[in-house]
Specification:
alpha/beta, seven-stranded mixed β-sheet, 672 residues, binds adenosine-5'-monophosphate-propyl ester, Rossmann fold, GMP Synthetase, Chain A, domain 3, 2 domains, 30 strands
Amino acid sequence: MAAVAGGQIDSVMQEKRLFPPPKEFAAKARIKSLEEYQELWDQAAADPPKFWADLARDELHWFQPFERPLVWKEPFAEWFAGGKTNVSYNCLDRNLAAGLGDRTAILWEGEPGDSRKLTYAELHREVCKFANVLKSLGITSGDRVSIYMPMVPELAIAMLACARIGAIHSIIFAGFSAEAIAERNRDAEAKLQIAADTGWRRGKALPLKETVDEALAKSPTVQKCIVLRRGAVAGLSEADGAGSGPGSQTPATVVSMQAGRDFWWHELMEKASAECPAASMDSEAPLFILYTSGSTGKPKGIKHTTAGYNLYAKKTFQWVFDHRDDDIFWCTADIGWVTGHSYVVYGPLSAGATVLMYEGAPNHPDESRFWQLIEKYKVTIFYTAPTAIRAFIKWGDQHVKKHDLSSLRLLGTVGEGINPEAWMWYHRVIGGERCPIVDTWWQTETGGIMMSPLPGAIPTKPGSCTKPLPGIIPEIVTPSGQPVGKNQGGWLVMTHPWPGMLRGIWGDDDRYKEVYWSKVPGKYLAGDNARCDDDGYYWIMGRIDDVLNVSGHRLSTIEIESALVSHPSVAEAAAVGRPDELKGEAVAVFVTLRSGEPNDALREQLKKHVRHEIGALAQPDDIRFTGALPKTRSGKIMRRLLRDIAAGKETVGDTTTLEDYSVLAKIRGDEE
Ligand code: PRX
């Protein structure tokens, strides 16, 4: 292990396994070899704006061609300046013009087992009608529309209708509290709320409208609210199998509607015309705001705009998922997160893909639901999060084995680093050792995938997101901005603007400059640590704020956690630093078990295991067993909170993104 100099981070992880793309996969892939990838990457890096401009001309419909590929007034970018296009047009009308009207755009299944299918022509019609509904309520270009809905096709319809008329959507994941909605509505000065009466989660109908009512009482700018009747619209009639699906409950559809403010979706749609030409939007017209939590302080409204985002979502979808016409693509993320924006809706639909959308929980009515869905819909590409994979492992292979997953040809992950042993399980048990895995690194801010294997071209290494996509130029630097050497951990930055990048934080240019552009001047600071190995592969090492400093060595969270997860008894692990007089910080880990008893013998075994896997320095000083780890609603481990617990402090900072508040109390109360 090397000593630290200049704020670099030591890497203690050695992962040697290499998985070349299967031959048959590569033969049919869009990008077929490492050489082909490298050629494309080099060509893009030689002149990124030209590279993107050439793609933009081909991949988007232009009402008016753009004049300049990029106007860069650091840190503000204008991509495809002077051009006019429309994202809803690119996702719908362009596909209809190409003769894809009868192709299925959305396959949908509700948690209770009800299902629907929308072709591109049907989706187009619904979007046009809903766009007219929006207009009839006085929504015009530039207005902000707040959306709080479960995973139903109407959520995608609402987004595309906003895009069609130039309204800016702000989607709030339908698990957030009334306070969180109100805070976001006030920040965005939203004019309209779109909601649903209920949504299904683990067999329960969540009272979404009730939460929205509470939020609207504190959202002074919101004048009207459209309410989707999830039960009725989703076809939970007896004919469609209500009462006979996996969950046979009927949603509680009795909601209070405030006269003059609240309108039923289906009533407004009845009268709406299906004629609604897409508005001609400036390339840089805002498309959406999506709030992400800062670790403290108020959430940041990440702003994305029209043409650059659209191009980036589309191209990255095609490259990374190697999309073919006959694919059934399933991204399990909720549309309330950026992954759902880019890879349930905008990326796949602009590429004319067929997507599966599922409303509910992976373990309802039992833990085989996802595998049952893959078998039923013959899913070919499956994209999910490491937190879900760790849960699948914990639930056991028997749930998977009951189902035929032979339709799958490609797997993906996003949201956190994937521990190599979880990667191996995914490869073996879900992928049948035949599907490449794309570990995709990106952020709400980046709009789309930045680093990932191209599945027909780049051999994979478990735990590495491998290489940057064409047009993306990363660098790893010290806090003073100096590039670090190979295999040295440091701050991950991007040296060039790219079309999918955020255009700012809604209403707060200063915060945008300060968070992303001030610490390493002239470069985009991602906020993650990473290292690049001898083969030019990138390994994400966790958030900058989560680094541990043990006896002057800066260690990454993921490496210690991956060592723990490679022990057969461990399901999940989180590593944090705890103040220690001697070492600066001691290594404290929180562990959930897959099997075995939480006792001292196992604790000693785990310490030895980490020592053996990655070295004495990283050996945990404290190991706490717990039933669950605190996570954000999108499934990321909240190490910040664990740091407080390890240090014996009261939890400070924002906890509104915590998924299950009881977890913290349980961990504090857990037997040592
Ligand atoms: O720390 C990285 C982690 O998730 C962060 C971005 O989170 P968010 O904006 O919620 O977007 C998640 C979906 C794109 C990153 O800064 N992260 C995401 N993907 C990976 C990852 N860490 C390691 N490997 C990944 N594949």
